[in-house]
Amino acid sequence: xxxxxxxxxxxPDDGRLPSSCGEAVRRSLAAGVPRTFSLYVHVPxxxxxxxxxxFNTYTAPDLGPGASRGDYVDTAVxxxxxxxxxxxxxxxxxxxxxxxxxxGGTPTLLPAAHLVRILDAAREAFGMVDGAEVTVEANPDTVxxxxxxxxxxxxxxxxxxxxxxxxxxxxATLERTHRPENIPAAVDAARAAGLDVSLDLIYGTPGESLGxxxxxxxxxxxxxxxxxSAYSLIVEEGTKxxxxxARGQVADVDxxxxxxxxxxxxxxxxxxxxxxxxxxxxxxxPQETGAxxxxxxxxxxxxxxxxxIGPGSHSHVAGVRFWNAKHPAAYAQRLATGxxxxxxxxxxxxxxxxxEQIMLHVRMVEGLDVRVLEQAEDGGAAARARxxxxxxxxxxxxxxxQAGRIVPTLQGRLRNDHIxxxxxxx
Length: 426
Known about the structure:
By secondary structure, the chain is of the alpha/beta class. It has helices spanning about 20-30, 70-90, 110-125, 145-155, 170-175, 180-190, 210-220, 240-245, 255-270, 295-300, 330-335, 350-360, 380-390, 400, 410-415, 415-425, and strands at about 35-45, 95-105, 130-140, 160-165, 195-205, 225-230, 275-280, 280-285, 305-310, 315, 320-325, 340-345, 370, 405. Helix 2 links the parallel strand 1 (about 35-45) and strand 2. The mean pLDDT is about 95.
């Protein structure tokens, strides 16, 4: 999340959306085109702020009325109710929740009963589809079997554990507080509770060798999770890491090193029955049935609709994007006075929408439908002319391109930004 939220256009106090939102959803439903609705719940609390993190998180347990760890549940539930009323008033057709995701921060710093209460409120407000995916992010230090059983009993189906690394000195550089042995313990506890498990990894940390990274990936595989995400470390402006790099205290990330680690991860994961479905995500799917994908994130990549609960959360409904006040106290105060927590919104123009579609779709194994390029001012002529060059460079699959889909090869996944620039024409 950027240090400063965009300004955008003002949002009415009642949170009402433009009439175009309801019209767009009704058209989709009438045409039988899937347009799912999801909920993201941001829990902004952490015990320690990691040096690389630029998320909207806070280490203080009490950030003012309605924004302390103890009463945050009431504020989040209040926004769930506000969201339901705003969508009804905007005449956006009601849709049951397809997925729910509790992110952070560290959601598991809150009592399990608080997360379940928010989920209950969401279920009552919107309903949920059968088999809806409900995920909670977890620091391995903050969960045990009893906690996870309470989540599962309340309707949570999946836990995403922040593993990052299995090597102590790498965890220390990242300022993670858990020990490597906490990871299999957390996975075992989740399994005992009947939950699906995802592990999140970070590669390219200064001082991490290729052997260290191999240890991390092999340790993750040995835990037998359903899903693994692997993200390259990015030194974000304004973070502690960024300042350390600027002072020469920590080496900057090395793109070539990160590329080598990505290739190693893909090799090890493929051999273990994991299949990539998005550039940074692999699902355990030996039979290639599409099992175990993170459906909430897939909804983002496919440009579906979601409402973001919590300070700084972003939402998207039928082409309209809006975002909440960033500080928890300001966010809670707005809800306490009965006005929308959203402080800005925008409707991206046709050019921006096309760029988003290209950026998101070429990250996925299904790729980008070439017909999407026809939305460009020239009808996609310039982008189509560059496709043979991308094939020749080994960055996209030639056979699939001829069949009408732009799908990155393994080398293309490493140079995904280049593919986007070529197709978008900049």
